[in-house]
Amino acid sequence: MSQGAGQAATVSLRNSVGSKLEVAKHGAHVLTWSPGVNEESVLFVSPAAKFGPQDAIRGGIPICFPQFGPRGALEQHGFCRKNNDWAIAKQDEKSVEFELKDSESTRASAWPHTFQVNYLVELTDEGNLATKMKVKNTGSEQFTFTCALHTYFGVGDISSTSVEGLRGCEYEDSLQGGKVLQEQEDAIRFEGEVDRVYGPTPQGDESGEDGEGTAEIEIKDQSHKRRICIFKSSSFPDAVVWNPWIEKSQKMADLPDDAYKRFVCVEVGAIRQPVSLQPQQEWEASQAISVKS
Ligand SMILES: O=P(O)(O)OC[C@H]1O[C@@H](O)[C@H](O)[C@@H](O)[C@@H]1O
């Protein structure tokens, strides 16, 4: 455990070809991921991010659980991302698994259930970032939850960035009070604030002919001349596309006013249809991210 991003206690992983990543114990929050030697992190972390015990870190991969956004009685995006009680369950050179169980404070919240979340973060031999989230109902009553891996992807310039793979998909437009629309475009481009929950999104094919599969969603970043490929399991049926643009950025104390130009959030999750777990039942979902030029 060391101090990363200036202030957070972190775990660092590095593979034999020089790929590396860093995860803060606070929130089991992936902060940086560099797929190649001497490459900058693909993930955006705000230069004004806060790392205190009560803060949600602005950037990287916050875990939204057991509530996505304002869809329930809890605070926005649930209590996991601000939680300091994550323990390290397992760790080796390539992976680290975090574990969070219900505590006095979670039981006193508007979601008072008995649960266990395990979150595995792995650096693959190819330098890709693979994550797996497991939720177990360890109590004696059924519960429901929504969740997301709220990834902030760094881009060279949001104006020459597009998100692809969602054409034909239904989405709730948060900027129009959740109005349900259907995506007409092959490429979602950014000329203002975008805040949408797509779902269910089309499934990709991890075993494609070239052995590399077909990503569900791709971010095309023309400035960096790269594509970020997002693979997700079917238990993450939904995907959020979010960029705050200028006015919202100006209102966010932990984001410089012009920082919206340098990231896009594509967040895989189980959002539109809450997941229901019976006592002792488990749920599991995964995401893998790779970068191609
Ligand atoms: O400021 P927060 O709580 O981290 O949320 C950031 C954004 O997170 C996104 O997931 C939501 O769709 C947006 O509506 C929200 O503004």
TrEMBL record:
Substrate binds at residues 58, 76, 81. GO terms for cellular component: cytoplasm. SUPFAM superfamilies: Galactose mutarotase-like. Keywords: Isomerase, Signal. One of its GO terms (molecular function) is carbohydrate binding. It holds the Pfam family Aldose_epim. InterPro entries: Aldose_1/G6P_1-epimerase, G6P_1-epimerase, Gal_mutarotase_sf_dom, GH-type_carb-bd. It comes from the Eukaryota. GO terms for biological process: carbohydrate metabolic process. The active site is at 150, 267. It catalyses: alpha-D-glucose 6-phosphate = beta-D-glucose 6-phosphate. Coiled coil: none annotated. Its EC number is 5.1.3.15. PANTHER family: APOSPORY-ASSOCIATED PROTEIN C-RELATED, GLUCOSE-6-PHOSPHATE 1-EPIMERASE. Belongs to the glucose-6-phosphate 1-epimerase family. This is glucose-6-phosphate 1-epimerase. It comes from Guillardia theta (strain CCMP2712) (Cryptophyte).
